[in-house]
Amino acid sequence: MTVVLAPDSFKGTLGAAEVAAALADGWAEVRPADTIVLKPMADGGEGTLDAFALAVAGARRMPVTVTGPDGDPVEASWVLLPATSDSPGETGVVELASTSGIELVADRLLPDDAHTLGFGEAVAAALDHGVARLLLGIGSSSSTDGGTGVLTALGARFTDAAGAPIPLGARGLDAVAAADLSALRALPEHGVIVLTDVTNPLLGPTGAAAVFGPQKGLDAAGVLRAEAGLARLAALLPVDAQAPGAGAAGGTGFGLLAWGAALVPGAAAVADIIGLSDAVAAASVVLTGEGSYDGQSAAGKAPAHVASIARAAGVPVAVAAGRIAEDADTSALAASVSLTDLAGSSAAAMTDTARWLREAGRRLATSLSG
Prior knowledge:
Elements: E1 2-5, H1 16-30, E2 35-38, H2 48-55, E3 60-67, E4 73-81, E5 91-95, H3 97-100, H4 117-129, E6 133-137, H5 148-153, E7 157-159, E8 178-180, E9 192-196, H6 208-212, H7 220-234, H8 248-259, E10 262-265, H9 266-273, H10 276-281, E11 285-288, E12 292-293, H11 302-313, E13 317-321, E14 323-324, E15 335-338, H12 339-343, H13 346-351, H14 353-367
Parallel strand pairs: 1-2, 1-11, 5-6, 6-9, 9-10, 11-13, 12-14, 13-15
Antiparallel strand pairs: 3-4, 4-5, 7-8
Helix pairs in contact: 1-14
């Protein structure tokens, strides 16, 4: 058999590449003669870099030191993808999660002061290298700065009524009165594609502050303050604040739209770039999964996209997940395994996720062999 492993990350435990490797180890114990193809998936959040680095031949990690969301230096990297017949010129992949992400301040959330400056510094490093195209994953943000941090790193200037630069983070939006984009760096030759699974607008009850602000530490008063600041910013930039995805990553989607980037569904774009359809077409079975497989998994998440590709190719698909919720639709799956069920509890499954993923790989190899 040829087995394609295309899981998403198990948030809070393992990245997609680690999940794929653990499943592969378990499968190979039962069926060592099978061909296993690793195609870890991502939707623009944590693990996007790992997915490209593992799945694309010739991909290279490019180290970079950036300013973290709390102002401290962060040792990060971006990924350089080689030119192809479909994409002339090299492509740079930059991930917000590893440069300005919430995991970098998980022990002390900074709702007013966290920012995306480091993400912008990594983008600038890729531009300095001379990439012809940029892919930017913007999931797992720590801030609600409207993208002012990333744009500042790229040459924009945001000032208060006295003409002084505003502070970084949501706090700075309290005083923003002018935006000067005249020194903003040019887009690379083949443009900038932003990967996101979020379609929220910048403002309103489904916007960046109201929906995602509490996850980043904003209390009720902070949400109102951030909403007002984002509205001030929206009045200064020539972008539709209600555009789908403008509210992604605390408004980073909005800022990148102002730069001229295009926002696209992350899972579909990643699948296309890593050649998932071609791999699936040659497969006997496809394994995908995520930390929580539930009723929302069919709404544009990576496993749903993987499953749709497999179904179109007539290839059976199975799921391994940290947990499989009662509202999850598993009727079209060839098999499914819950790590919580294998381990006896969600806590046990999260404590040693790799172990239970290997066991899931063994179980799926056994059940799908016939």
